Amino acid sequence: MRRLTKFASGALAAGVTTWLASPAFGQEEAPTVEGVAEGVTTLGQDVNLLWIVIGAALVIFMQAGFAMVETGFCRAKHAAHVVVTNFAIFALGFVAFFVIGYGLMFGGYSYVLPGFDFGYGSAVGSSLVGNGSWVFLWNPSELIALRGISNMDMGADNVMVGAVMGFFLYMVAFMDTTATIPTGSMAERWKFKSFIWWGLFCGALYYPLFGGWTWGGGWLSQLGNSLSLGNGYVDFAGSGIVHATGGVAALAGAIVPGPASASTARTASPEPCSVTTSRWRCSAPSSCCSAGSASTPHRRWLRPTCSSPRWPPTPPFPVRSAPSS
Fold it and tell me: How many CB atoms lie within 10 A of CB 234?
């Protein structure tokens, strides 16, 4: 037993000595200023890109709010249709934006700002219509289905590849918001086929066109350089590019079908009825006759017009006062 203990102790001591004498432990190169600076820059890019991805996830969660709001404003029989349009719009817009929309919007985009850099150091595409400060359309050929980053070296350009993919996800979230706004203005009023065409059109052309003029570095964003108009078009949070663009589309979509007809309006009611009940005489439309008659619909949130002079009606049981002490 003592020999086994001595042998184990000797083997452990030899292992520790070998580990301490290894190059990885004892012969590490001293850090240089350039190496430390490069590490700090890379760490900052990673943190900024992580924040962009988190922001994209938060924006995408807006779909749940849109779905609940729009479903609450529609009739129960159309609730499933409205919910489906709110979630299907993401898939439709994503496909169109992935194939061609992102290239039209950010073909010439790059972003290098100390402290806020996230690795998008050079543009992947080029201009198609215009040049310099007057670019009206970016060339999407290098970014069709993001094929431009597939040619990059995943080892040498891994920061650039990650930046493009993270930024694409972030812009998909805003595109989805723009495409979802009209689904509320036309809820219950359009067919699913029309909705599909809208989702593809918004992701491929409608949103990327105006977005390329502004966030993509097009002519509107460069008015400060070309015409000395301040800083050009500046939109920090998307009030114009996202919400105003979606609002204009929603307004146009509501104008095209026009007001709801009497047969589809929410306030339309059947022929009036006159029902005598044990509580009161109701002369309101049948949808309002909620006096307890089993033959009429119950709409408890609508107040019927009754001939009884008292509202609410007298309860069917006598009200007794508490006995005095």
Answer: 13
